[in-house]
Amino acid sequence: MRTxxxxxxxxxxxxxxxxxxxxxxxxDYQDVHHDAELARQKGSPDIFMNILTTNGLxxxxxxxxxxxxxxxxxVAIRLGAPNYPGDTMVLTASVDTIEDGTATVRVVGENxxxxxxxxxxTVTLPPGGA
Length: 130
What we know:
Number of helices: 3
Strand content: 35-45%
Structural class: alpha+beta
Oligomer: single chain
């Protein structure tokens, strides 16, 4: 692992089940994350993914790459275009820095509408992971 190295892309199909399950798991009961009719009444074309689900997917992407010994230290993300059912989000990333067994990784997630998420993940690497 070295600075500038790119992680392989991860394609995540955005399904209704993923959106609703993520909202339930994060205790986000806002109707726009599970009720399409109420989401439309509020101006959205459909239900959409919540930030906590996106945050979890970004963290998973990085820790899956570095292995089970990797420990998330910080996930700092910013949302853009919503993730709606039927789309696919593609996560890509590159290693920004590695210092004293800790890596900072820049992550971007794109969907059919554009950039859904961008940010950085700080992760402590498992022994021998740098």
